[in-house]
Specification:
This protein is mainly α. The protein has one domain. It is built from 3 helices and no strands. It is rod-shaped, with a radius of gyration of 37 Å. The termini are far apart.
């Protein structure tokens, strides 16, 4: 008789519950994967921003140390002042 008992499955509600739980867990896993991917993407974005900022700081530090930009700037200021300042003439 156990063979006939196996044919009649009466726990349909239990099967439906299991299917709903499986769907729910699968969707939660998808959401978790999306959250992790978004967090990694954001971390990479901030890492690139910080690397760019550090490279820019290093560039400007090197420029300040060399002093080349200062000399060019001072020369341009002197030329600008020489061209714009009126020459006073005394009679």
């Amino acid at each position: 008789m156990p063979v006939d008992a196996d044919r009649f499955h009466s726990d349909v509600a239990g099967e439906e519950l299991q299917l709903r739980q499986d769907r729910y867990h699968r969707s939660q896993q998808i959401y978790e994967n999306k959250r992790v991917a978004a967090a990694e993407k954001e971390e990479d974005r901030w890492r690139k921003i910080e690397d760019t900022k550090a490279a820019e700081e290093a560039y400007w530090h090197a420029q300040r140390e060399s002093g080349v930009k200062v000399i060019v700037f001072l020369k341009s200021c002197f030329l600008h002042l020489a061209q714009t300042t009126p020459v006073l003439q005394f009679r």
